[in-house]
Automatic annotation (TrEMBL):
Residues 35-205 form the Ketoreductase domain. Signal peptide: none annotated. PANTHER family: 3-OXOACYL-[ACYL-CARRIER-PROTEIN] REDUCTASE FABG, SHORT-CHAIN DEHYDROGENASES/REDUCTASES FAMILY MEMBER. It comes from the Bacteria. It holds the Pfam family adh_short_C2. SUPFAM superfamilies: NAD(P)-binding Rossmann-fold domains. The keyword Oxidoreductase applies. This is SDR family oxidoreductase. Belongs to the short-chain dehydrogenases/reductases (SDR) family. Keywords: Oxidoreductase.
Amino acid sequence: MSAVTGPLLPLHWPDASDEVAADPGPAPVQRFTGRTVVVSGGGRGIGRAVALAFAREGARVAVASRTTAQVDRVAAELRAAGADAVSLTCDVSSAAQVRATVRAAADRWGPPDILVNCAGVFSMGPSESTDEADARELFDTNALGTLLMCQEFGRTMLEQNHGRIVNFASLLSFTAFPQRAAYAASKGAVLQLTRVLGVEWASRGVRVNAVAPGMIRIETPHPAIAAGSLDEDEIVRRIPMGRRGRPEDVTGAVLFLASDEAAYITGQTLVVDGGWLSYGYL
């Protein structure tokens, strides 16, 4: 047997580019007609894409964020496309605002069927000098905010014996990047929260799952790339699919987990990263 020399896998997969056009795929099916969906963090980026995707499949959509102007724009965009949509101002770290959001959605359409917890914040820096205020904001929004949303919406869903919750974890729920101690810990909490609620509420008609996006290209640069601590070309070379993800790559996973097609799935986190986490070659 001849010896194997050189790298077992390339550092860059050829014929792949961030500029490759997304496959539009088949026309949307109306899997969510008559369903009410609440999307936190829906004012921009992946959250906006999630809201649009549910609307295309017939859902009534409440777009929630602490930034009123952003969710007003997205809700107007949905209504202009013919969807039934409303904007709700909500800071997910405030239990009072979360309760008000549940009431507002229920008053308009009845008890919500689906909750997508996309609201989140990001921060990075040397772990030994992480600012206490920054760390508290990370945990209050990413971890506590997800818990409060799950609790308040979950109570209504449990009363109906029906509901689907999709949380947003992260690659850092599974692995470690330097200078992201507080962020990684907050997203690790989301992973475990999803597991606990997924098994605790399974017999009561409520499924709880999560997605963990990888390096997704959105309208604003990733903070680490903007700060110069990450090189975008190196990131792309590290992704087996040879490109950064698009918001639409994540929405398919969210819609699947919220749909009847995932009726026997709960407590799971679906990684959407182009193969990053599985790829062990550096």
